[in-house]
């Protein structure tokens, strides 16, 4: 069961059908309301009921014409600033603020059928045996074919023969990978010597994070093998947890990864995980969200035995205005990792580095993906040994920007529109889980030194 995303925008913004997809039928609006109403009744969810009510009282708000206007609208959206908002509330606020115009709704609506998110990609076998690569590696629970077919490799990928650094993109929770990166880091190769691929995780990363990490571990060794050189990773949100778990329990991935760049990661989980389960009355949720609770067994297991310290050069970028992961400032910020292995770690808190400046302004959980400092540090890390370095950047120039120069207003709006997909995926996920998955044997036995 999926929500029809074009319908969300049509009802909220009173957008003429012909402006979106001439063939779209108004019946989709009825189906959407019925779907949300049924879900609200089934889960006794007040937030979904409120969303249905708001959809029935649609209103039109003009789309911002500049990035500055968009960020201002985002900041003043009552749904985003309301204490303990749900993802549905946030999506509601974004749409009501005019941040999801027709062309973006059109793209988002096709995410379920998009080849960008395919789990059936065909690639040659790796040059070396990597399943597993080392006796120290944890065993895989999925077949090698399943793991390999989740890797999306664009036709332009050079397999290391063009001198570019291969970069693997790892998505966050509730949004398919190809769609996640479409408006942001899939464009990284346009501005630097990077070749980008991404990993498509089943069910938009809402399943067991321990299994999600298997896809990441395999992708690191596969891409490194077929390119005959180390690779880099850019992760967002849960993608950081999945990568850190892979590095801990598949030690062979460490020499294969030259850089780990984590955007809005929750290495210590979040204290507001229940807010992300709007359809489930905070009683049940999806496996990976339950695992991202501040006190979850998954988080405690990951952080044990120095799992709270970096395994490879690591660049971490995060914002105080993260509406999904809290806390995200101060000494208890969830994004923090230590550097007991002396591999090199930079902790880039946007508001501390660019205080009172545009790049240190109101950037949310997803907003970090188009932040100019985040892009500058990511590019710096990929093109230099070790993590990104602030001393190599022109901070006066970077902090004075509103968004990465490689991107435009459409990319900002498209990234914000991703939360419509998150609301759809979370509101329709089945089967729900009342407790997080058990810790797998290799981790419960103390592996992953």
Give a summary of the structure in a few sentences.
This protein has 449 residues and is of the alpha/beta class. It contains 20 helices and 7 strands. Helix 10 (177-181) links the parallel strand 2 and strand 3 (194-199).
Task: Looking at this protein, list some descriptive labels.
alpha/beta, 7 strands, Stereospecific_Lipase, 7-stranded mixed sheet, Rossmann fold, 449 residues, Lipase B, globular, 39% helix, 20 helices, AB_hydrolase_fold, 2 domains
Fold and architecture overview:
The protein has 449 residues and is of the alpha/beta class. It has 2 domains: 5-115, no CATH class; 116-408, Rossmann fold, CATH 3.40.50. It has helices spanning 5-13, 17-21, 27-43, 46-56, 67-75, 78-81, 87-96, 102-109, 144-149, 177-181, 209-227, 238-249, 253-256, 287-291, 297-303, 350-353, 372-383, 395-399, 409-428, 441-444; strands at residues 151-152, 165-170, 194-199, 231-236, 257-263, 314-318, 345-349. Strands 1-3-2-4-5-6-7 form a 7-stranded mixed sheet, with helices on both faces. Strand 2 (165-170), helix 10 and strand 3 (194-199) form a beta-alpha-beta unit. Helix 3 (27-43) runs antiparallel to helix 4, helix 7 (87-96) runs antiparallel to helix 19 and helix 11 (209-227) crosses helix 12 (238-249). The longest helix has 20 residues, at 409-428. It starts with a helix and ends in a 5-residue tail after the last helix. The relative contact order is 0.14. Keywords: Signal. This is Lipase B. Residues 1-22 form the signal peptide.
């Amino acid at each position: 069961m999926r929500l029809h995303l074009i319908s969300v925008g049509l009802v909220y913004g009173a957008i003429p059908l012909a402006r979106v997809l001439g063939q779209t039928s108004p019946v989709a609006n009825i189906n959407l309301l019925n779907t949300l109403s049924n879900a609200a009744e089934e889960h006794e969810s007040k937030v979904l009921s409120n969303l249905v009510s708001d959809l029935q009282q649609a209103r039109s708000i003009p789309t911002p014409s500049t990035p500055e206007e968009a960020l201002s609208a985002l900041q003043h959206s009552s749904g985003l600033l309301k204490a303990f908002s749900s993802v549905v509330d946030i999506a509601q606020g974004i749409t009501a603020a005019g941040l999801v115009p027709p062309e973006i709704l059109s793209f988002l609506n096709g995410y379920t059928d998009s080849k960008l998110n395919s789990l059936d990609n065909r690639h040659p076998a790796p040059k070396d045996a990597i399943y597993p690569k080392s006796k120290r590696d944890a065993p895989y629970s999925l077949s090698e074919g399943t793991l390999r077919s989740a890797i999306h490799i664009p036709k332009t990928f050079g397999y290391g023969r063009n001198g570019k650094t291969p970069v693997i993109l790892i998505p966050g929770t509730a949004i398919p990978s190809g769609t996640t990166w479409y408006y942001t880091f899939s464009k990284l190769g346009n501005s630097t010597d990077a070749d980008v691929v991404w990993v498509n995780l089943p069910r938009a990363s809402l399943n067991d994070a321990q299994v999600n990490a298997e896809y990441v571990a395999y992708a690191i060794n596969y891409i490194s093998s077929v390119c005959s050189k180390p690779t880099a990773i850019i992760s967002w949100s849960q993608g950081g947890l999945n990568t850190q778990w892979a590095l801990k329990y598949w030690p062979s991935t460490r020499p294969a990864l030259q850089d780990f760049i984590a955007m809005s990661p929750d290495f210590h989980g979040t204290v507001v995980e229940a807010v992300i389960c709007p359809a489930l009355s905070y009683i049940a949720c999806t496996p990976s969200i339950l695992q991202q609770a501040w006190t979850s067994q998954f988080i405690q297991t990951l952080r044990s035995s120095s799992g709270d310290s970096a395994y490879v050069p690591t660049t971490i970028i995060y914002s105080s205005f993260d509406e999904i992961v809290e806390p995200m400032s101060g000494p208890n910020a969830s994004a923090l990792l230590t550097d007991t292995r002396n591999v090199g770690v930079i902790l880039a808190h946007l508001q501390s580095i660019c205080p009172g400046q545009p790049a240190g302004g109101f950037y949310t959980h997803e907003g970090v993906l188009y932040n100019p400092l985040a892009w500058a540090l990511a590019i710096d890390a990929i093109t230099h040994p070790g993590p990104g370095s602030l001393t190599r950047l022109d901070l006066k120039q970077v902090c004075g920007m509103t968004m990465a120069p490689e991107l435009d207003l459409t990319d900002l709006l498209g990234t914000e529109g991703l939360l419509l997909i998150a609301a759809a995926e979370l509101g329709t996920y089945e089967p729900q889980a009342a407790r997080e998955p058990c810790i797998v044997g290799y981790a419960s036995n103390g592996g992953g030194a």
